[in-house]
Fold each of these.
Amino acid sequence: MERREFLKKTGIAAAAAVAGTALSAPAVLANKTYNWKMVTTWPPNLPVLQTGAERFAKRVEEVSEGRMKIQVFAAGELVPALGVFDAVSQGTVECGSGAAYYWAGKVPAAQWFSSVPFGLNAQGINAWFYGGGGLELWEEVYAPFNVIPRPQGNTGVQMGGWFRKKMETIEDFKGLKMRIPGLGGKVIAKAGGTVVLLAGGEIFTSLERGVIDATEWVGPMHDLRMGFYKAAQYYYYPGWHEPGTCLEVIFNKNAYESLPKDLQLIIDSVAMETNLWSLSQFEAGNGEALQELITKHKVELVSFPEPLMDELRKMSMETLEEEADKDAASRKVHEAFKKFKERVGVWGSVSENAYYDVIADKYSLKG
Ligand code: CA
C-alpha cells in the first residue's frame, strides 16, 4: 500500500514537472477536450424534453468553445429510459436527463424534486431550488448514489387529462381506468380508479378503443401532437397532479469533479439557462396549441368541480404522508417542501394568484 501510494504521488509530481516545462497545470486542463455521453428518458425528437437535452449539449459545446462535447442518446439508444439513473450512478455514462420521479422505486425521496400533487408550480419549485435550500437537499438525496442533480427544465402546470365522460363528483373515479403515472396515479387509485400503465405509443389507441377511460399526458402542445382530441371529448384542467414538473440533468459525481472549475460552472450555468428556456417553450407552445385545440378541433375544456378538487386534495395529502413514511430522507424532504410551500403559497395568494384573478378572461376559454 505504502509503495503504491508513493508511486502514485511521485507519478503525479513527475507529470506536473513535465507539464510545468511547457504549460502550467491549469493551462493543460484548459486545453483538454472532454467527450461525454448523455442518456435520456425521452423518445427521440420529443419536443422540449429530448430537444431540450440536445440543446443543453449544444450550448455546453458552444459556451466552452468546443472544450466539452456531449453526445446525446434518446431512451433505448444506449440504455432503456428507466436505466438512466443507474447508468449515471455507475459511471457507464457521465450524465443523463429525465425527471426525478422516475427513480421513486429506488429513491423514494426523489419524487419531491419533480412534481407533487397540489405542490409547487414552476415558479415555486425554482424558488425552492435556487432560493430555498431545495437544490442542496436534492444533492443530499442523490449523494449516496454518486449522482449530482441540476434542474434542467419545467413543464409548467400540466393539464388534468382527457376524459371520455364528464367528471362531476369524486365517485366518478370509481372504476375509472386511467393512464396516470406517479403520485397522481396513487391518488386516483385511492379514489377508486384503476391506474393503467402504458407506453407512450400505446396511449392513443387504448383511449380510442375505450381500453382506458381517461389519460393525462403533458399540456396542450404535447397533447395536440398525440391527437388525443380525436379519442376523448373532455379536456380537463388544471393538472393538479403535476403543477410544475421539474426535469433534471444528472452528473456522475466523479466525472463532474474531474472537470476544471470553469467547465463545472459552464454546465451548471447552461443547466440553469436550459431550465428557463424549457419553461418558456412550454408556456409559449401551450398557449398556441390550446387555441388550436379549442378553435380548430372544437375541444371542450372543462374545469374539475371544486368539491371534487377538495376530495383529490385531501387524498393527495394522505398519499404524501404515506410516501414520506417510506424512509427518513423522504420525511425530511417532505417536511422541508411543505414548509416552503406554505410560505410561498401565502405570498402567491396575494401576488400571482390575485393578479391572475384580475386579468383572467374566463369566457375566452370557450373559444
Ligand atoms: Ca403528465
Amino acid sequence: MAEKTTISIIKCDVGSLAGHHVVPKPLLEIGEKRLKEAKKQGLINSYYVFNAGDDLELLMLHQEGEDNPEIHKLAWNIFQESAKKATNLKLYGAGQDILKTAFSGNIRGMGPGVAEMEIDERKSDPIVVFAADKTEPGAFNYPMFRIFADPANTAGLVIDPNMSGGFKFNVLDVIENKKVVVKCPEEMYELIALIGTPGRYVVSHVWRARDGLICAKTSTTRLSLIAGKYIGKDDPVSIVRAQHGLPALGEVLAPFMHSYFVEGWMRGSHWGPLMPVGLKNSKCTAFDGPPRMVALGFQVANGAIASDDDGKPMISDLFDDPAFNLARREAVDYAVTLRRMGEFEPARLSAEAMEYTTLDKVLERLKRRFTPA
Ligand code: F6R
Ligand code: MG
Ligand code: MG
C-alpha cells in the first residue's frame, strides 16, 4: 500500500467516577460506539478505546494524515458527548479538559492531548503507545533518553550498525515556546542539560539520524497556559516505533523496569514515582496516584491495527507483566517515603512549578501581611 498511515492518540479527561481516578464504563462505551461508526463510514480503519486513570484515550489508525480536521472533530465530538453523559451522571470533574466550546478545525489548544505519527509502513511496523495519568509530557523525557540515546539501556546503539548513526531529538521549551534539535550521541550531554528539567524542556519528536525516519512523538499540551489558570497536569501520551534498525520492543520497555520520579500526582503539585501498570490497574487511587502509565503494543498493517480472524485489533497490554513488578514495588516504596515529608520540598514541587497550581491563591492572602524585616 503506497498511502501513508497515521496513528492518532487523542485523550481527554471528560469526567471520572469517585474523584479523579478512573473513566467509568458508560464513557468508554461512547468512545467505542462512535469510533465503530467512524470505521463503518470509512473515516478510520481501526481503533482502540481505553483509559489512563481519569483520561479517556482514543487510539485511531487512518489515512487522513496528522492534524486532520475530520479526525480531530471526531475525537472532539466524542469528548463533548462523553462530558455531557458525565454531567448527567454527576460524575466528578465532568468536561474537565474541554476548555473551549466551538471546534475550530484542530483539537490542539482546546484542552485534549494529542500525539500523531504519519508513517510509511515498513515491511513490519511494531508500535508502542504509552498513556499516563497524573503527570505531564516531560515525564517521557527520561525514558526517551534511555531508549534512543543511552547505550546502557539500548544494546542496539552499540551492536546494531543501523543505529550507530544515532538519533535526533526535537526539544521544546514549553515556557518560552521555542524548539531546538539535538543530535545524539554527539550532543548527549547538551540533551541531558536541557531535558533534565522536564517541567520546561520536553522531547516532542525523535528521528533516526541517518535517514530521518520518525521514531517517537509525544503530546505537548500545556493546559494551564491555554486556560490561564490551573486545571491539572497535562496527562501525556506518546507513540514509539520499534525494531529493525530502531530500539527493540524490549529496549523500549526496559526503562520501565524501575520506577522514576515525575511531576504531577496529587493536585499536580508533587514529585511522584511513576508506576507502570496493566489496563486493569489503570486507576489513580493512593494520594490520587501514584502517577501511572500503561503501554499498548500492536502491529500496523495496511493502514490499520493488525487484527485477528474476527476483525478484533490485536493489542498487547505490555505492562500487565510480572517483569514490571519490581518497578511497581519501588513505586509504592518511594510513594510512602515521599508522603512522610507532607508538604515539604522535595515532596512538593519547587516554588516555580507551584506557580502553575492553585497555591498562589493561598499565598496571595499572606502577601499583604509581610513587612520589611
Ligand atoms: C491532579 C488531579 C487531582 C486533583 C485533586 C483535587 O491532576 O486531577 O489530584 O487535583 O483530586 O481535585 P478537586 O480540586 O477537583 O477537588
Ligand atoms: Mg480529572
Ligand atoms: Mg488525568
Amino acid sequence: MKLLSLPALFRSFSLRTFFSALLLSMVCAGYAQRSEKAGITTEQKIRALISEMTLREKVSLLHGNSKFNVSGIKRLGIPEWALSDGPHGVRAEVNRHDWAYAGWTNDSATCFPPGTALAATWNPALAYKQGLVLGEEARFRKKDILLGPGVNIIRSPLCGRNFEYMSEDPLLVSRMAVAYIKALQSKDVAASVKHWLANNQEEHRDSVDVTMSERALREIYLPAFKASVMEGGAYTVMAAYNRFRGEWCSENDYLNREILRKEFDFKGVLMTDWSAAHTTVKAALTGLDLEMGTDKKDYNEWYFADPLIKAVEEGKVPVSVVDEKVANVLRVMFHTKVFDEQKREKGIMNTAEHQQAAYNSAAEAAVLLQNNGKLLPLHFDKIRSIAVIGDNATRKHCSGGLSSEVKTLYEITPLQALQQKFGAQVKINYAQGYEKQSTFREGNNSGQSGSSKVNWKLIDEAVALARESDLVLFFGGLNHDFDTESSDKQNMDLPYGQEILIHEVAKANPKTVVVIIAGSPVELAGIVHRVPAIVWSWFGGMEAGNAVVDVLSGKVNPSGKLPFTLPVSLAQSPAHALGNFPGSNLKVNYEEDILVGYRWFDTKKIQPQFPFGYGLSYTNFSISHFSTDRTSYGKNETIRVKFTIKNTGSVYGAEVVQLYVSDPVCSVLRPEKELKAFQKVFLKPGETKTVEIPVKVADLAFYDESKKAWNTEAGEYILQLGNSSRAIFQKIKISVK
Ligand code: BGC
C-alpha cells in the first residue's frame, strides 16, 4: 500500500474519520506524548477534536458558565477552564454566580506592588520573577488564565487604574510586560493582556468613544500590546469596555482583525472584559473568541451562547468562523498543557521565596525624590524618638482597587515594620494626623467627595508629637478610594487636608520626612519647599512596610525612578492642558496626540515637579565614555551604544541609565526626546562597569501616516544619555543613510 502523507491522510475521508478517532483517544486519554512521538502536530490534534464536536459543544467553549469559568466538554476530555484576576496577585476565590467572595480559607496569596511600582524598578528581571511567582500561585489554585498584565498607557494623572498600569512610556511598559508574560506562561498559565485598547480612563469606560490619530495609536498606545503578543507570546488578550473610533473594542474590525490577527499574527484567544460584549454576529465576525462576565443570569442567553448557535443555523455566521474560535481556545489549552496534567506545573503558594520576590520589587520601586542635607538614610542608632504620622502608616492596601485586589497572607504596614525593626531602641509614637473620610463606591467617584475636610484635632495631636520627637516620618498620599478601577480621581490633590497637616508638622519639627504612598501622580508643589526629604514608595504589596523602612534606614539604597512625569499641577499635563479628559458627550479625542507624558513636557519646555525617569540614590554615579560603534548607519543596522558607569560613592547602589533619541530635522513633528533603551546597573562602591546596549536604527522611526508605515528618515539623530528625561549627561550625533 502506498504510504500517504499526513495531509493526504486527512483528505481521505474514511481514513480521516479513523485518524481523528485515534488522535482523539490519544488527546483525551492524556497521551499527548505518544501523539507527539507519532509526529502529530498540535494543529492536527485541534482539528481532530473540533471534528468531533457538535455545534452546541463548540459554542459552549466560547462563553463563561460562571463569573470566572468556561465549560469543558467532558466526553472529549476537555476540562473546564478557570480564569482569575489579577495582575499583582492571584485573586481570592469568587462565588461562581455572584461577585461575593467564596470565603475559602486557603486562597490567601502573595501580593506584589502594583503596576506603577513594578515599572518604577525599571528592572525587567523583577517583572520576570513576578511572572514566575504568579504562575506558580495560579497553578496551585488550579487556574489556567491570569487576567494581567494591564499595559494601558498612563495618559492622565487622574485615571483610577494608573496604579495597575505601568507608565506613560511605551518602551518601559513593553519591557516589563514581555518579561512578566514570558515568565507567567512558562508556568503553564496564560496571560491576558488588558485592556485592548485605549482604556485610559475609568470615567464612562463602558460607553466612551475614544479617537486618536493613527500615529498616536502606533507610537504610543499599541507598542506594549504588540510587544506583549509578538515578543512575549501572550496567549490571550482582553478587549476593553470602551469604543474605539466608533466601534466597541470587543467588535472592532480594525483593532481585532486588521491589527491583532493580521499584523500581530495573534493565534490566541481574544476575550471580552467582564460584560463588554454587545452583539453576536458582528463580534463573531470581527474576531472575538470568548465572552465573559455578561450581566445575564441565564448563560444560554449570552451573545456567544444560544444566539450564536442561531446565527450559525441562520447562515449569518459561518461554522468555519466558530471553528476558528474553538481552535484558538484549544491552542491556548495545548500551550498551557491542559491535556497533560503530568507535565503541567503543579504550583505552590506563599513560599518564603515568593514573599522575598514581593519584597525585592517593593524595595527597588521606592523613588527618592528629595534629600536635602542628606537627611536620609536615617541613623537609627542616633535617634531617640520618632513621631510617625499619617493614616498610611497603618493602612493596608492589598485588598483595595477592585478587580486587582488581593487577599494577601499578610501585609506589613510601615508602622509595624518600624516597631519590629527599631522599636526596642527608638521611642516610636504614632499620630493619625488626618482622617480617611472617603469610602469607595463603584463607578461614580462619590467616595472621593468631602475628602478635603481638615481635622484640626488630629493635626494638633500630630504637631504636639512632632514637637517632642527627634524626627517625623510622615506616611500619606492616597489609598484605593482614589487609585481604583471604575472611577477616576477628581483632582491631583493630596486629600484629607494632608498639605496643611504637613505644613504644621514641618513647622513644629523641620526634620520631617514625607513618604508618599500612591499609585498615580499627586500634587507636591505645596510641600517640596517645606520638608527636606521625600520618598515615593507606592502601594508596596505585602512587604510594603519592610521595604520602605529598609530604604529609610539605608539597608536598601533607593534605585527606583519615576515611571511617569510628576506635574506641578494637573493643568500642566497634556490631556488637561488641552481640555480633553475625560471628554464630553461620551467622546474623547486624544488631541495631545503623540505628546504624552514627558514627550509633552520636554517638547513644550514645561518644567514638571519631577521628570520622568527621575530618582536619587544614597550614592553617586559618574557616567562617561559614551560612544557608538560608528557615526553613520543604514536603516536596517544596529547601533552599538556603549558607556562606562562608576559608583563614586561609599555604598552599594544601582543607577538606571536611560538612552533618549531625538530627530531634530524631520518632515513631521517629533517629540523633543523618546526613550529608546535603558539599563539598570548595580555597582559596589568604587566599582566600574562598561555597558553595551544595542539599538536598532529601525526603532528610531516615526509612524508616517502618509505612507501608512514606519519611516526612518535619512539624516541626523541625536542620542542622549542620562538618568532622567531632564538630566542628560552626554549627546552623540549619528546619521542614518
Ligand atoms: C476589569 C478587568 C478584570 C475583570 C474581571 C473588569 O471589570 O476591567 O480588568 O479582569 O473585571 O474581574
Amino acid sequence: MSTIDALSDRLSTYLSREQIQQVRRAYFYAEQAHTGQRRRSGEPYIIHPLAVASILADMRLDYQSLMAAMLHDVIEDTGIPKIALAEQFGDVVTELVDGVSKLTHIKFETKEEQQAENFQKMVLAMAKDIRVMLVKLADRLHNLRTLGALRPDKRRRIGRETLDIYAPVAHRLGLNSVRVEMEELCFDAMYPMRSGLIRKAVATARGNRSELVDKIATSLRGRLNEENLPTRVLGREKHMFSIYTKMKEQRKSLSDILDVYGFRIVVESVDMCYRVLGAVHNLYKPIPGRFKDYIAIPKTNGYQSLHTTLIGISGVPIEIQIRTEEMDAMANHGIASHWLYKTDNNEVAGSQHAQQWVQNLLELQKSAGSPIEFIEHVKVDLFPDEIYVFTPKGRIMELPKGSTTVDFAYAVHTDVGNSCIACRIDRQLAPLSSKLQNGQTVQIVTAPGAQPNPAWLSFVVTGKARSNIRHFLKSQRRSESVTLGERLLDKALASLGKSIDDIDQAHIDLVLEETGLGFFEDIMEDIGLGNRMASLVARRLLVANRDTDIDLEAFNDDAPLAIKGTEGLVVSFAKCCSPIPGDPIVGNTSTGRGLVIHTETCKNVQEIRGNSEKCIILSWDKDIDSEFSVDLRVYLENRKGVVAELASAITQADANIEGISMEDRDAKLSVTQLQLSVQGRKHLARVIRRLRTIRGVNKIVRVKN
Ligand code: MN
C-alpha cells in the first residue's frame, strides 16, 4: 500500500522540495478532514485521495493538481467550506477542488436534455482550467479500480457513464493509458461473462503464438541492427475491450483479430522513424494502402506515429507503429505529457491540440440552439475521425469525417464560407453538399454579395460552419423582422388615426420600461416575429400618452397591409393553400415564426378569422415581381406526346415547372400533378387557358388544401 512518504519520494524526481511540502500539507489536511470516514471497502477514506494524486504523479502533473487531488472530496464530504480551503491553500487550488466537486454532481444517466446541460457545465469547467478534468479523470479511474465493493447495478451505471463520457474525453485529450484502463475496467464491470471468455481465449492464443511473435521480433531486431538503427522493438497486445468492440462492430471473429501481430518500434529521432520504415519494408512486403503518416499529419488529439502493415513469415499480417520516445509519451499521456512545469504562476500550458479543442467547444456552445443540439455536435467532436484535404495552393486542412465543401469553406475563412456559391473537387464542379474524401483538392468559388443558405444547416458537420451560418441567419432575420414589425405597427396606428411620428420618445420609453426591452427596435422585432401584437403595442403607445383622448374603438382596419412576397424569413406562405397574388389573403401571426399567409378561404384559418389580433387582413402590393408556387391537377386522356405538349405550353406562357408527377387512372385516362411557379392569378389564368387548348386535356383544377 502506498503512503504519502512513498509518493513524496516519487515526486522528488520532478518537483521542488517546497512544492512537495505543499502537497504533503494538503495530504495531512485532507487526512484530518476525512477522519473517521471509510470507503465502501472498509479502508480509511484518505486512501482514495492519495491514490488519485498518485495517478496524477504518474503523469508528472504539477503540484497544484496534486494538492487538488488530495483535497478533491473535502468540500463535498466533510462540510469544510470553500472559504476555509481558500485561506489554507489559495485560490488556484481551491478553484480546482471546487471544479472537481461540481463535476462530481453531474449525472449523465438522467434524461437527454439534462444530460446535455450537464455536459455543457463540464465543458465550462474544463475550459476554465483543464486540470479540473485531469483530476476528475484520475478520481474516476481510481473509483473504477475499486468498483468491486459496489452493488452490480451501481457498477454497471458507473461503467456506462464512463464509456459514454469520461473515456471519450480522455481519448480526446490524448490520455490513452487512462482511456484504455478505463475501458478494460468498465468492460469487466458491465459484461463480466464476456470479458472472462475473451480473456481466456486471448491467453490461449497468446500461448500458441508466442513462438511466432518471438521469431518476428528477432528478425525485426536483427534487420534493424544490421542497418545500424538503434531501436526498442516491443510486442503489442490488444486490449479486451477493443477486441470486443471490433468483434461487435466489424463482425470479425476472435481469431481474425488475434491473428494480426502488432509491434511498436520506438526510436530516437523523426528522421530515424522513416529510416526504420524503409528497413522494415525491405524485410517484409508492405500491404498497399495501409501506410499512414501521422507524423507529417498528426491526429486531432496530437497523436503521432507511422503505421504500416506487412506480410510476414507464412503470410501473417504484422501491424507496425514507428515513433520517437516523445511521440510515445504523447500517445500514452496526451495533454499531460506536454505539461510545462510552470508551477509558480497559474498559466496552464496543455498541448495546443487540447486547448484548441476546448476553445472550439466553447464557441460551439455559444452558438448552439439548445443543449441537445450542442451535445450532438460534441459527439462528432468526441469521436474524431479526421480527413485531410488540400487547398488549391497545397495547404493541408484537417476536418472531421463527413465534412462537406461548405465546412471546408468555413475552415478556410468565415468570409469564404459566407460568400461561397460553388466548388470544384479535384477540378470537377461539385455540389456544395458533397462529402469530402481524404486527399482531395478543394477549390471554393465565391461571389461578392452571396449569402449563406439556411439549407446548409442540414448537411454541415463542423461547429464553425454551423455557428457562422446561424449567426448570419439570426442577424438577417433580425433586420427583416424589424422592417415587418414597423409596417405592422404603422398599420395598427393608422387604424387608430395616428402614425409613428405622433408618438414622442417619453411614451416609447414608458412602453420599453413596461416590456423590459432595451430599444424601440426590439419591440419592432418582437412584433415582426409574431411574439407581440401590433394592435396591442399601438394601444399601449397611445394610452401611455395619457393626455390623448382618442376613442380607441372608433377606428377600423380599412387599409390592409400590403405584401410583396420579398419580405424574407419572417413572411411565409402556407403550404396548405399556397396563395398567389390576386387571391384574397389573410395573415396569421404565429409566435416566433412571423407572419404566415393563407388564402381567405383556407380552412386552416377559419377558426381564427374573427380574431383581429391573430388574423390580419392583408392585400397584395401593386408591383410584385417574385414568383409563387401553385399546384394544378390536370385530367388527361392518354395520348402519345401529350405531356410534352403540356410542358411546352407552360413554357410558352412564361411559367416554370417545379415538379410533375403522374398517375394512371385506367388505360385511357391519367391525372397529372403539376407544381408551377407563376406571378399571380392573372398569369395563372393565362397558363390554364393555354393548357385547355391542348387536345386530350379534360379538366384542370387548382389544388388547395
Ligand atoms: Mn473522489
